[in-house]
Amino acid sequence: MTTVLFAPDSFKGSLTSVEVARSLAEGWRRVRPDDELLLAPLADGGEGTLAAIAAAGGWNQMTSPTVDPIGRPIDGPWLRSLDGTRGVVELASASGLSRLGPDERDPLGATTVGTGLLLRAVLDAGPRRIVLGIGGSATTDGGAGILDALGGWVEPQRIDLAGLDTRLASLDLLVACDVTNPLLGPTGAAATYGPQKGASPSDVATLDQRLARYADLLEAASGRRERDTPGAGAAGGVGFVLLCLTERFQTLSLESGVDLVAGEVDLDAKLARADLVITGEGRIDAQTAFGKTALGVARRAQAAGVRCIAVGGGVEPAGIAALAPLGVEVIPVHERALPLAEAMAAGAAPLITCGERLARGATWLGA
Known about the structure:
- The structure is a single chain.
- By secondary structure, the chain is an alpha/beta fold.
- The strands form three sheets. Strands 3-4-5-6-9-10 form a six-stranded mixed sheet, sandwiched between helices.
- The chain has helices at residues 17-31, 49-55, 91-95, 113-125, 144-149, 189-193, 201-222, 238-244, 257-264, 267-273, 293-304, 317-323, 340-345, 349-360, and strands at residues 3-6, 36-39, 59-67, 73-81, 86-90, 129-133, 153-155, 158-160, 172-176, 251-255, 276-284, 307-315, 329-332.
- The chain folds into two domains: 3-42 and 266-365, Glycerate kinase, domain 1 (Rossmann fold, 3-Layer(aba) Sandwich); 49-258, Alpha-Beta Complex (Glycerate kinase, domain 2).
- Helix 1 (17-31) crosses helix 14.
């Protein structure tokens, strides 16, 4: 009997990491029913983080009233541990781009106030250790919405932190952040991520100017200069506001999203039991080298001496090259190239078939 660990990310826009893991495992089981199969669906702090952590067990799924990026009332999901001491919040669930249709994107007006309201709801419920995933935002407000929801006073000429929620002082906040961009400039929040949120070139210039003025005010109010700190540009500047408020928390840390989620789902303990780990994500490409899930799993697998296979909905040479030094075999989900829309519409069936294909080729594992 062989123990196989399935630890993929989501295939964004198509399947959650939970669905990907289950589908690959189902295909494998059809061919090798006697193997022990372990599931550890993952995420990088963006959309799907709640689902991945919840799948590991030990959590109650909660909802609280909040608003989406353009102010519409919604019920925002979050997680509370069974003992009530820990919480998980996903920025994307309230302030994410997935909350908006293509014609609803508002790069100049979208705010993170909904995420701030969720954080306040978690504080009201009692947890004092919160994991906050900040990927997938629709916003470039510098986290001003979060600051406002938590009691900060944000005006065009002044920021006042006197009214900030005092409960932050007893809060340990772990921020899942996979980008290293500064707040401003050609590699900053507006220039790098604004266009995917609907910003035109003139919008990008406007947003960068706004963020510069905001940075002057917040750094003066907090006494911390954080605009150039790696990660300050994450989630349209959410990284910046949190870094500026570091001293208001009991502890605050920006951590690799995949590493933080891996810790929450106890990935290393599962790897210690495995003979093979199968990871994957929607695309294995040039971005894989910059800390995406497949790379994070591959590094852990190498450290544990466990063989690793990565499957991708799309596979590019740069992605193969990024994983090759770690001894990872990269396998496309589809045996022939498909248009993106067709591949995304195919659902779970190709992943089940891929799982079967991997199992049939696993003669090297033994019976």
